[in-house]
Amino acid sequence: MNYFSYILKKIERKFLRWIEALMAKRFTYRHPNRIETLLIKICGLLVKRMIPNDRWSLNVHAKQLASASILPCDRYYSFGKKIALFVCYRGEFSTGIALASMLAWRGHKVTILYLPKLQSPSKSPLEDGLDAGVYLERSLRWVEIVSKGRINCVDISKNININIDIYKKISYLERRAHLDSVMALRRELLEPNDPLVVTYIKHYLELGKLVQKSMLTLIDKSTYDLFLVPNGSTYAAAHVVDVLKEYKKPFVCFDKFSMRNSKLINHNGNIMELNDIDAIWSRILKLGLINDAQIKQCCTRAMGMLNERRYGAVENWATQTQTKKSVGAANVKKIIGLKPSESFLLIATNVPFDAGLAEITTIFPSMREWLIETIKYVKKSNYVRIVVKTHPDESRWAANETVEDIFKNLNDDIKNNIIIVNSSEINTYDLIEASNCGIVFSSTVGLEMAMLGKPVLLGSRVYYAGKGFTIDVNDKDEYFLKLSALIANFNQFAVSNDTIYMSQIYHYLLHYAVQWPFPFMKPSDISNYRLHQLLSGDGISKYIQTLDSLCVGDTNSVVNMIVKKQQWDLPLTVVSA
After folding, report:
1. pLDDT, tens digit, for every residue of 234-277?
2. Which CATH number fits domain 321-513: 3.30.450.20, 3.40.50.2000, 3.90.226.10, 3.40.30.10?
3. Are the C-beta atoms of residues 446 and 462 closer than 8 Å to each other?
4. How would you classify the pairing of strands 262-267 and 515-517?
5. What does each C-alpha distance from 473 to 476, 488, 506 come to in angstroms?
6. DSSP 512
7. What is the largest CA-CA distance in the chain?
8. Mean pLDDT throughout 339-367?
9. Alpha carbons 406 and 185: distance in angstroms, whole number
10. Which stretches does DSSP call E strand in 383-503?
11. Is the pTM of this model over 0.90?
12. CA neighbours closer than 13 Å in the CB half-sphere of residue 245
């Protein structure tokens, strides 16, 4: 009987996936009209068992997800806040309504602020059809009804104040359009006369103007206690964050980072500004709030995580970055053609298009320029060999510009005698252990180098800069001054045990303290009444503190929540500032 049930469920899943694929293809560039919407509603019982697809099934799934907000919540009911949740692009509507339902279930009043955009933020076609706004309005009007007023949806592109002047922001808008185009086109070098580049930059410039005007119109009459913004570092969300910062409105950004089944939450900054970890880090350093036993446990856990990554384990990590078996530091030198006694400097790159956020490119304008200038400078001396390690995501993200592409344009006298290593060929952590020192732009490998006792020079203001375990600089002159000293004598930058412990504690905080368990990462996680099942059972208890963290705006409360949350098993007595 169990086997028979298993076969039936397998057949059902295949049938549903087949229907989903047909519908996704049909509505790739448009949305259901009134007759198609009626037919989808008639098949509602079947559609509810499918994975939500914002482009065609929202009229069914929006009601289904919003209805979870009225489930009984006596045990976990909290004092309600007026919360605004920004939503834009495909996939964010269904997951956004699910999050809004969880918050409304706890007693908050949630307004979903949305733009009528259902395509990808970066993939062609960039523009939505004229029917997107009508389709969304028709689908989302049921959210307020089925949630009994706990959730409502507002198209912020309507009723824009045409008198708003954003000319004073034109420099920011142009810079943001360039950065978004780099991300979307997956290459750092953009030719200004390339028609495709012109199209993308124009699109993101107009998008920025739309979001800025929409938010500036809204912000004047806003009575929300808090804003929630997915990611907040790119595309439309970056402009939302810009306006919220300008008007000093409390907000929270959230997104998946690198850990499974959890999201990184950051208060009053985009997801990569990491204000929360900075707050707890500064208090630990200034007030000495952890004892020797806690330090040992933090460091042990951090090194355990690093070794999981080294050996390609994915039980905790969301992706596998190392596919090559570790052979040890001694053997890796032989593999890359170096003598056992030969010193080398390890340069760890990023994926070029994903290297530079506006906040960190204050020393070099791009990773490309950093890499070229660094190699040219080091090549002037004969002190040390150079090994360049490429980022494993170059192939996974199908980058249109790679480190090898950058090297192709260099003169032979510069690129000769430089060893370029692909992460799919050599284990990164073997290279780190075999190296004498490291240089990175904004890769997390820089933090891991410090954890393994290597001096590491930074070419940007990456999130872990200025924490006491890296070689930091403020400008190019200081960068090359310290680079010169580094390659002349590695020993003068020798890393102490205390510094190693600091880097390991920071790694622990980053991958445990500010990571919050989250029940759904994508639309497939909320299909087939899973949200109702979650809110009706005991499983929701695991996520209550995550929901609480999303709903606070002051730093003291955030820090106290971080050290008390359930997954934190090394209690730290962090006091308010």
Report:
1. 999 999 999 999 999 999 999 988 888 899 999 999 998 999 98
2. 3.40.50.2000
3. yes
4. antiparallel
5. 8, 18, 20
6. I
7. 75
8. 81
9. 16
10. 385-389, 418-421, 437-440, 456-458
11. yes
12. 15
Domain limits, the chain = 26-278+520-564, 321-513
For 382-417, the pLDDT digits (tens) are 668 889 998 877 766 677 777 787 887 777 777 677
Q: pLDDT (tens digit, 9 = 90+) per residue, 20-31? A: 999 999 999 899
Q: How would DSSP label each residue in 145-195?
A: HHTTTSEEEEETTSS--TT---GGGHHHHHHHHHHHHHHHHT-S---TT-H
pLDDT tens digits along 194-214:
999 999 999 999 999 999 999
Would you state the structure tokens that stand for residue 469, as one six-digit string?
A: 């375990």
Query: Nearest CA to 37 among 147, 142, 151?
Result: 142
Q: Which residues touch 131 (CB under 8 Å, ≥6 apart)?
A: 30, 31, 33
| Token pair listed for 415 | 């690129």
Q: Which element (helix H / strand E) includes 371?
A: helix 367-379
- The structure tokens listed for 219 are 């912000």
| Sign of CA pseudo-dihedral 13, 14, 18, 24 | positive
* Residue 290: per-residue pLDDT: 63
- Residue type present at position 1: M
Q: Give CA–CA dist 345/389, Å, rounded.
A: 11
Contact between residue 91 and residue 523 where contact means Cβ atoms under 8 Å apart: yes
The whole-angstrom separation of Cα 159 and Cα 142 is 21
Q: Could you give the CA distance from residue 173 to residue 155 in angstroms, rounded to a whole number?
A: 22
Predicted confidence (pLDDT) at residue 153 exceeds the cutoff of 50? yes
Write b or e for each residue in 375-392: b if 16 or more Cβ atoms lie within 10 A of its Cβ, otherwise e. Answer: beebbeeeebbbbbbbbb
- Which residues are bridge partners to 206 per DSSP? none
pLDDT attached to residue 217 = 94
Q: Give me the helices (H) in 390-470, please.
A: 393-396, 403-408, 412-415, 428-434, 445-451
What span, in angstroms and rounded, lies between the C-alpha atoms of 404 and 282?
39
Token pair of 5 as six digits: 């049930």
Tokens of 381: 């001396």
Which residues fall within 8 angstroms of residue 399, CB to CB, at 6 or more apart? Answer: 186, 187, 351, 352, 353, 393
Taking each continuous run of H as one helix and of E as one strand, the counts in the chain are 23, 12
Q: What does the pLDDT read at residue 286?
A: 59
pLDDT digits (tens, 9 = 90+) for 113-130: 999 999 999 988 888 888
Cβ atoms of residues 153 and 111 within 8 Å: yes
Q: Are 36 and 3 in contact (CB under 8 A)?
A: no
The answer to whether the CB of 252 falls within 8 A of the CB of 232 is no
Residue 516 to residue 511: CA distance in whole angstroms: 10
Q: Coil, helix or strand for 549?
A: helix
- Going by their DSSP bridges, the two strands 151-155 and 109-114 should be labelled as parallel
Q: Which residues contact 277 (CB under 8 A, 6 or more apart)?
A: 463, 506, 509, 510, 513, 514
